[in-house]
Design a protein that fits this description.
The chain is α/β, with parallel strands linked by helices. It has helices at 15-24, 46-50, 56-59, 63-67, 128-147, 151-157, 167-183, 213-226, 271-277, 324-341, 378-391, 395-411, and strands at residues 7-11, 30-35, 39-41, 60-62, 73-77, 80-84, 89-92, 95-98, 101-104, 108-110, 159-163, 197-202, 229-232, 234-240, 243-248, 251-256, 259-262, 266-268, 289-290, 296-297, 300-305, 310-311, 357-362, 365-370, 373-376. The chain has a six-stranded mixed β-sheet with strand order 5-2-1-9-21-20. Strand 24 (365-370) and strand 25 (373-376) form a beta hairpin. The two termini are 38 Å apart.
Length: 431
């Protein structure tokens, strides 16, 4: 067995964890990358899997493939169920593994704000399985409407509600409207897909609340031009099969809808609760672990927490958002911290550089906020395409996605419109 200067265990192969593994590749550090999935998922494009524009293989990359040239990096498939900070060990499927440095980057799941019973009727969008489930629900609704004779039931089946007006919600709502307007045209005989009603509900006063008001207003206008009904200042108070209840201006409104998609909040992975139960971590209200300025766990300088699992505050005192650029920059910082430890270097504070935000609303329409530079429309859409394409991990994925996007653009088609049963593997899909 090869001896290494440090034994580093990384839990989580998302943006942050993968960045650490890649940064330590080829060094004298021994790295073990652990994830309960065998692939890295490019979540910003997951909504396109959910709406049939891309196949799962387009947005997922096997971790072993990414790390195959780094002989000092070992990839293990499994789920960490316990951490002993005193003994410096993690429990992986009933087997204890020792570490010198531990990096926790297990991400986040959905936040239903105390209403976990809504999950079945309103799935979130964090995993490939959830994307395939949502895709099946969307296209199954049109199929059911085609066979229905009751006009009221047809309207309910063709009502689609997206809860949450952040980037994912906006992108989903726009894609749903384009499916109805263009993709499914002339494919049905008893219904007109254009009659589908897409409703986006946002509790705040504007969609994309993290953007400047001018861009938020532009995004809302673009959604409405597609035919999306945007409801702001409304809080969802109930979700049941075929109905959504919302409060707006003190009035209760019940919406009949067969398909509801949840994009309204995130909650850190259970690792945070595990460390809190052991008395070693302080969590914020989203379950994120509060960290030191160098991203280490308080009282444990050899344990780093990054990405959506970390509550890391900016210079203004506000927690950094749960977005990929934060996780990637934190991963790069941890790489530098680990390499500095090899030479007894002191810890340094993490500084996040906000390079901007962007969201696509539909075909040839997007909004981009890059510091003081803000623009929308076709140029913003091209910027969005380029940034997301180049952010994919492998060249192969970039080529496949570019090819699929080009085909979708010229034909208005979404070739991955396959309906699968829950848990079923779509063997017929091509990358």
């Amino acid at each position: 067995m090869i001896a290494h200067d440090l034994n580093v265990i990384i839990v989580g192969g998302g943006f942050g964890g993968l960045r650490v593994a890649q940064g330590l590749g080829g060094t004298s550090v021994g790295v073990t990358l652990i994830d309960k999935r065998n692939f890295h998922l490019f979540q910003p494009l997951l909504y396109q899997v959910a709406t049939g524009a891309l196949s799962p293989a387009n947005v997922a990359t096997p971790l072993r493939s990414v790390m195959k040239r780094n002989r000092n990096v070992q990839v293990l498939l499994g789920e960490v169920t316990d951490i002993d900070l005193d003994r410096k060990q993690i429990l992986l499927d009933q087997e204890w593994f020792a570490y010198d440095i531990l990096v926790l980057a297990t991400g986040a799941t959905h936040q239903y704000f105390g209403h976990d019973d809504w999950r079945e009727a309103a799935p979130g969008l964090k995993t490939i399985e959830e994307a395939l489930d949502i895709r099946s629900r969307i296209f199954r609704a049109f199929e059911a409407a085609e066979r229905e004779s009751d006009p009221a039931r047809i309207r309910a089946l063709l009502n689609f509600v997206v809860v949450g007006g952040g980037p994912t919600g906006v992108e989903l709502a726009g894609a749903l409207r384009e499916i109805a307007n263009y993709t499914l045209r002339k494919e049905f005989r008893n219904i007109n897909p254009v009659d589908a009603h897409v409703i986006l509900i946002e509790q705040g006063e504007h969609v994309l609340p993290m953007y400047v008001p001018k861009l938020s207003a532009k995004a809302e206008a673009l959604l409405k031009s597609l035919g999306v009904e945007v409801i702001t200042g409304a809080a969802v108070t109930g979700i049941a099969p075929d109905t959504v209840t919302a409060m707006r201006n003190g009035q209760e409104e019940i919406i009949q809808a067969s398909t509801v998609i949840w994009t309204a909040g995130v909650k850190a992975s259970p690792i945070g609760m595990l460390l809190a139960a052991n008395g070693n971590a302080t969590l914020d209200r989203s379950g994120r672990i509060e960290v030191e300025s160098d991203l280490s766990l308080p009282g444990h300088p050899g344990v780093y927490v990054i990405g959506d699992l970390a509550c890391c505050k900016s210079d203004s005192g506000r927690p950094l958002p749960c977005v990929a650029p934060v996780a990637i920059q934190q991963g790069a910082h941890v790489v530098n911290e680990i390499l500095a430890r090899l030479h007894n270097g002191p810890p340094t504070s993490f500084q996040y550089r906000d390079y901007g935000s962007m969201a696509t609303i539909g075909r040839a329409a997007a909004v981009v906020q890059l510091g003081r530079i803000r623009f929308s429309g076709y140029a913003a859409w091209l910027t969005w395409l380029f940034v997301h394409l180049m952010s994919l991990v492998r060249t192969e994925n970039r080529f496949l996605v570019l090819l699929q996007w080009s085909w979708n653009y010229w034909t208005w088609n979404r070739s991955a419109r396959i309906i699968t049963e829950p848990g079923e593997v779509a063997h017929t899909e091509k990358p």
